[in-house]
Recover the amino acids of this structure.
């Protein structure tokens, strides 16, 4: 229970992210759709997490706090999915390997519970990028 | 007042470019209801006239946005672009083709880099096709002929919700008149996605190992020995079973997505998938097609290529078009901090680019042509809201299979909001005046 897990991060699409993206991006629904991650329930149990808890994801490129949800596509132990958006982009690998395309899948990530933290809202993320 | 029903509306959201939309209008030309759209398309229509929709051009003065006239906004955008050493003109995929043509002229006039969202989506596919070609066809052919359909690294239920219903699995085709009962679905992914849950065969591949599985399939297809029990996390017996189904297809179609283009190997993964389909054509008839994301990203490839010879990441600084992915692509030039100004059209890179690239974008003057408040408008100096293509303005868009469809004007735009093409023409005129 607790501690941290070394996992693999993959960004993905969800229909909720798509519908929120076409709606109000500066609003709550977009944060609800994109400021989250999906984990295999066995991995959640290993970290003592319940659906809706907050977790910190840290990669070589940055860190972000997200809320965790039980993945409907399990089993995929060791892999955590984050919908593409400003939250995921805090921690993805910008390296394009000279193709123009950044590496948005299969990124090594450390996941740990962050019970005292909240998922940053879109304005907080943007001001972080403007520093 | 009786409601007006507009039929055969083309949906301006994803590369499926569904053309059977129905929009019901109420008093004053308000959109009250939509039918046949998936939830993403419905969201775009139902939010087009929301209260948060931008209606007047905005310019940042003393750190805050103020409403300005279109003429003032256009003059300032032209100033920024004309005086920049290396401007970036990015986005384009949510705008129609005539807007792209003006964008290209503008990029040439200012000696800038013009790039589309292809760069973070199917850019690797375009690179692979340039290297090894592509056996492909239109979606109508798939609907009418395909009895084996593969989705590799693509989750259509979430990213192209009506793709399977309109084009590949569920519809009754001319030669597949029993619909899904006449077809076999194979899904290859790193987890059991909603598409995989419907599949007859599901291959769960280890993240980053698609290349080996594709190579193994090619070897097994040609009856070469495979001296191992497992490849890329998949039992070889399972690969053999699926290859057998593919080999014996009447007409097979392989669709692929970001699982191949974004993973390690990128364009090499797509290259190998294209070669697998080429190999399959020795035994059966197969095509391969990318699941393009935006409704007109294929259109950017079409317009950019027929005007400049290149599909994306085009640099006009030398006075002629120059293309070199990695050197002239948007994220790379932002990471290297080469760009000193940007015009963003029909896109939201602050949401969709890695943070390291966005940090530079936030430091330079940015002008955005965008109808809604987005993270990109938040960091912009100037925002010009256009008439939304496909809802408030006509235009041509290309579906993911390169079929052009005419977008409809369903409602009037807010007063003063012009189509992207006209805004860009105004900017181009101003730039030409400055450069004289």
């Amino acid at each position: 229970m607790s501690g941290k897990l070394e996992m693999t991060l993959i960004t993905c699409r969800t229909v909720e992210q798509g519908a929120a993206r076409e709606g109000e991006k500066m609003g709550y629904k977009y944060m609800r759709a994109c400021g989250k991650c999906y984990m295999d329930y066995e991995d959640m149990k290993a970290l003592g997490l319940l659906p809706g808890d907050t977790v910190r994801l840290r990669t070589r490129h940055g860190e972000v706090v997200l809320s965790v949800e039980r993945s409907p596509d399990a089993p995929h132990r060791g892999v955590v999915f984050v919908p593409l958006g400003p939250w995921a982009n805090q921690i993805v690998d910008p390296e394009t390997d000279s193709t123009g395309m950044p590496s948005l899948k299969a990124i090594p990530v450390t996941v740990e519970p962050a019970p005292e933290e909240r998922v940053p809202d879109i304005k907080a993320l943007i001001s972080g990028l403007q520093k | 007042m009786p409601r007006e029903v507009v039929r055969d509306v083309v949906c301006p959201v994803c590369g499926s470019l569904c053309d059977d939309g129905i929009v019901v209008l109420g008093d004053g030309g308000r959109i009250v209801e939509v039918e046949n759209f998936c939830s993403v398309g419905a969201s775009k229509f139902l939010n087009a006239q929301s209260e948060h929709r931008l209606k007047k051009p905005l310019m940042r003065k003393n750190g805050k946005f103020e409403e300005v006239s279109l003429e003032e906004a256009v003059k300032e955008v032209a100033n920024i672009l004309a005086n920049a050493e290396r401007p970036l003109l990015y986005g384009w995929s949510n705008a129609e083709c005539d807007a792209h043509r003006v964008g290209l002229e503008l990029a040439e006039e200012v000696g800038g880099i013009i790039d589309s969202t292809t760069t973070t989506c199917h850019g690797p596919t375009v690179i692979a096709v340039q290297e090894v070609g592509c056996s492909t066809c239109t979606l109508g052919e798939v609907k009418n002929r395909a009895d084996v359909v593969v989705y590799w690294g693509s989750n259509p239920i979430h990213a192209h919700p009506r793709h399977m219903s309109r084009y590949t699995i569920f519809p009754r085709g001319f030669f597949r008149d029993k619909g899904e009962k006449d077809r076999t679905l194979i899904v290859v992914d790193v987890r059991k996605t909603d598409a995989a849950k419907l599949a007859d065969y599901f291959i769960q591949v280890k993240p980053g190992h698609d290349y080996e599985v594709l190579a193994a399939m090619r070897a097994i297809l040609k009856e070469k020995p495979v001296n191992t029990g497992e490849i890329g996390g998949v039992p070889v017996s399972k690969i053999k079973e699926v290859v057998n189904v593919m080999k014996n297809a009447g007409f097979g179609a392989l669709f692929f997505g970001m699982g191949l283009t974004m993973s390690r190997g990128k364009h090499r993964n797509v290259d190998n998938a294209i070669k697998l389909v080429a190999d399959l054509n020795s035994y059966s008839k197969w095509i391969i097609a990318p699941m393009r994301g935006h409704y007109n990203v294929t259109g950017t490839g079409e317009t950019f290529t027929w005007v400049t010879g290149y599909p994306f990441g085009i640099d006009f600084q030398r006075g002629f078009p120059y293309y070199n992915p990695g050197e002239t692509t948007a994220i790379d030039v932002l990471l290297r901090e080469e760009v000193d100004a940007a015009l963003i059209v029909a896109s939201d890179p602050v949401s969709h680019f890695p943070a390291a690239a966005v940090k530079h974008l936030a430091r330079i003057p940015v002008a955005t042509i965008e109808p809604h408040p987005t993270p990109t408008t938040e960091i912009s100096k100037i925002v010009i809201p256009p008439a939304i293509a496909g809802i408030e303005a006509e235009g041509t868009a290309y579906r993911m299979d390169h079929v052009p469809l005419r977008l409809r004007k369903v409602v009037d735009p807010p007063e003063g909001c012009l189509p992207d093409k006209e805004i860009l023409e105004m900017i181009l005129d101003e730039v030409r005046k400055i450069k004289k």
Residues 4-47 of chain B form one domain. Chain B touches chain A through 69 residues (CB under 8 Å). The longest strand of chain B covers residues 4-9.
